[in-house]
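pasting input
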Amino acid sequence: MGNGNVVSVVTIGTIAYDSIQTPFGETDCIAGGSALHFASSASFFTSVGIVAPVGEDFDVCELSFLRERNVDLSGVEVLNGRTFRWKGRYGYDLNTAITLETSLNVLKDFKPHLPESYRYADFIFLANVDPELQSCAIDQIKNREAYVALDTMDFWIESKRDALMEVIKRVDMIVVNEAELRQISMEYNLLKGAKKILSMGPKTVVVKRGEYGILMVNDEEVFLCPAYPLEEVFDPTGAGDTFAGGLIGYLSNVGSVSNQTLKQAAIMGCVMASFNVEDFGAKRMKSLTHKEIKERYSLFKKCVEFSDLKL
Amino acid sequence: MGNGNVVSVVTIGTIAYDSIQTPFGETDCIAGGSALHFASSASFFTSVGIVAPVGEDFDVCELSFLRERNVDLSGVEVLNGRTFRWKGRYGYDLNTAITLETSLNVLKDFKPHLPESYRYADFIFLANVDPELQSCAIDQIKNREAYVALDTMDFWIESKRDALMEVIKRVDMIVVNEAELRQISMEYNLLKGAKKILSMGPKTVVVKRGEYGILMVNDEEVFLCPAYPLEEVFDPTGAGDTFAGGLIGYLSNVGSVSNQTLKQAAIMGCVMASFNVEDFGAKRMKSLTHKEIKERYSLFKKCVEFSDLKL
């Protein structure tokens, strides 16, 4: 799909047709997947390239909103067969999805192939796919300074623990939820678990806590940032990848990774995720504007700012 | 117990013998209860008086650490019978206690009686007791400007809903956990629930979210503050009352209730609660110093501060 432009951020992940049930409604076969959600967010800040497979049944018009935001789609491969499908349900506790059905389809035969121009990107986001594919993607990176972040899920932690541990050693950042952190580190306490993962190689651990925001830990700092409070949370599908897109997109935009920019980036991630959950799939991200992002950031800041205590 | 000095803050609650099991150890019959935990925290900032009953079996030496911090105990009544007892257990998820046994004992016949000198206090904390007793305590307040905060629990929300609704109308602040907020407001979403409670009378709603910190809502502001991150959480019993003690104690110390001081006070509440959970019951609060409080606040600040985003 296209020629492959020089991009600053590359994500390796999935493009899917999602069917989602929430207490507020349901939807059938809408375009989703980790790479789509990540790019829908990161593309507000930087140039993004996607590596992901779709099936012959996939309507490429679903990606036109990304193309309009200059997302490079030359890494999107059309494979024989049907597009990856996920069917899930949420109860009132929107922090946890219940998977009803997963049809891997083209994902079964997927091997990531980074177009030549992607191999010099500054930031790589390895979305939640088989850790062996994540390693295979890292092998193709030619920019030795590239900053690599990784997400995963319980399925891989259980079934491919060794391969996952190998790839974790090779990344700069890991972005997981609380349950995943506990499962990887085998520590119940999040801080202890994060420190254990730091000892494995990554320089920064980001823990996604759903409506409670995020915890970010590195050797020097512990940073806590709540989620933006919303009166209507409609569909959290893709919130984690939208968060990661804001985080990595912001880092790419400012062009440096420091404790200061990491904290700012985490906040931008939370701001972006707060939009994603306002409608089904990536619908809200399609209509989103820079002006709205700035406004929400201002509101977010008001919710967490305080003046120094008198002691 | 004593003559009754002029105090700035009065709490009406319980003094108990708690038996607690956690994954990290267990303890039998240690002094606890909402009033004790509240005072163990508030007494760092202001003069506190306690209204609570104990039984003939209660060893008053258990309260000597409070007396040393100038807590007035003239409102502690020794009633015929045994002291209120609570037996509870926590799993690794320390956010939720499982009650194993409750023996109300002297609490069955308790009617709060505020010593004359308490009736002019500036702040009243109605800890979790029967809402009829909370109303009875409010009836005795002679300071028309007194700021009144209220806590409650599922048991009263279910069994004495009407009485609870009546007392909620009469208070300035309500301090509850997420489940209690949902149960009172009959709204799942916390923001919606908080706004519903604001429409009932209170000016400020504080939602305690355990390890995730607090959400504070009033007509003008929404404030989010994470809990201080700890590697060892030993026993959360009393954390909510210790939080409230830091919150109300700080407000009394600065002598004004504004959006600015409310946020600062909520943070102080989180700081104080972070000590409480480090050991069984109020043990950690007994050895706590002002120096340690200042140090932890500095560390807390580092965990939530960030520099303005570049947009």
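fyi Chain B touches chain A at residues 92, 188-192, 209, 212-213, 215, 221-226, 229-233, 250, 253-254, 260, 263-264, 267-268, 293-294, 297, 301-304, 306-311 (CB under 8 Å).
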